[in-house]
Specification:
Strand order of the largest sheet of chain A: 1-3-4-5-2
Largest sheet of chain B: 6 strands, antiparallel
Shape of chain B: elongated
Number of helices of chain B: 4
Helix content of chain A: 10-25%
Number of strands of chain B: 6
Order of helices and strands of chain A: EHHHHEEEE
Structural class of chain B: alpha+beta
Oligomer: heterodimer
Largest interface: A-B, 35 and 35 residues
Number of strands of chain A: 5
Number of domains of chain A: 1
CATH architecture of one domain in chain B: Roll
Chain lengths: ~150, ~140
């Protein structure tokens, strides 16, 4: 099923604020088995020059996915979620995400295209503080695989 | 906010210490809870195989998180990673046994930028197959 190309370029309203908690950073780091002290011990993070615990480089996916889920599940977009795979992921940081940050995500549909029957949608989540200071960008390529009979 | 490794001490071709990361089913359950990604193909073998997968597969984001540990362990300060992107080429298949799967990660510096950053190209494989493509991390090093 083809995606609605009119969604390309669409910008969604900012997400509800996401408060980055120390225990959430520790939980995420534990889940990936990473004992880097900057994720667990405030003193270690401060010794590196950070105000509080540092979030791992892929932590931003938690808030980016929460913000973009309403977008990719929008029935008018026409994405068949049962056939979806994650094609590419990127993060770019103005500064690291730290415990105590209160962040909002603004999701944009960067592009929609179809290649060999596969629907491909690229979303960009711009992550900023409540005051509007840009912090990071998360870019995701989601692919909805073509049904076998049309591939 | 920068790594302890000095930019001047790194050359194109510098290899980072390689690491292997084991992954078992319980790790995927923990990652699902921590990340909020409860897609059933990451914990339910019945549904994973019904959609044509060989078995339960790791979250791509789990593999991405493991692979960059080679970079953050090298840099010491994880906040030194200013950009990181990957292409998910093949899934990491995680069998329901006592071993699980292994993600083998190596990395080397492939570019030095004038702004004090370096580009690290990461290679990640499991069961002999490359699982990430075009995996690049940009790291700000000490001056």
């Amino acid at each position: 099923m083809a995606l609605n190309p009119e969604f390309a370029g669409r910008v969604y309203p900012p997400s509800a604020p996401y408060l980055v908690g120390r225990e959430k950073i520790r939980e995420f780091a534990d889940a990936i088995g990473d004992r880097n002290p900057a994720y667990h011990h405030v003193d270690a993070a401060r010794a590196l020059g950070h105000a509080d615990l540092v979030a791992p480089p892929t932590f931003a996916i938690v808030m980016a996915t929460r913000a973009s889920s309403a977008v990719i599940h929008d029935p008018e977009l026409g994405l068949d979620y049962s056939r979806v795979v994650h094609g590419e992921q990127g993060f770019a940081y103005v500064r690291p995400i730290l415990a105590g940050d209160e962040l909002i995500v603004t999701t944009t549909i960067e592009s929609i295209r179809t290649m060999a029957g596969n629907d491909m949608i690229t979303t960009r989540g711009d992550i900023a503080t409540l005051e509007g200071e840009p912090v990071a960008t998360a870019t995701s390529l989601i692919v909805s695989r073509a049904p076998e009979d049309t591939a | 906010m920068t790594a302890r490794i000095r930019w001047a001490d790194v050359e194109v071709g510098t290899e980072l210490p390689a690491q292997s990361f084991p992954v078992q089913r319980v790790d995927l359950v923990k990652y699902a809870g921590a990340s909020g990604d409860f897609n059933v193909i990451h914990w339910n073998e019945r549904i994973a195989t019904s959609v044509g997968l060989p078995n339960v597969i790791a979250h791509g984001m789990f593999t991405m998180a493991e692979a960059v540990r080679v970079v953050t362990d090298w840099a010491v300060d994880p906040g030194a990673v200013v950009a990181y992107r990957v292409r998910f080429t093949r899934p990491v298949v995680v069998p329901d046994d006592d071993q699980g799967a292994m993600i083998e990660v190596s990395a080397k510096v492939t570019a030095k930028n004038d702004d004090g950053t370096v580009v690290v190209t990461i290679t990640a494989s499991s069961e002999g197959s490359t699982v990430l493509g075009k995996a690049l991390a940009t790291v700000r090093l000490a001056q």
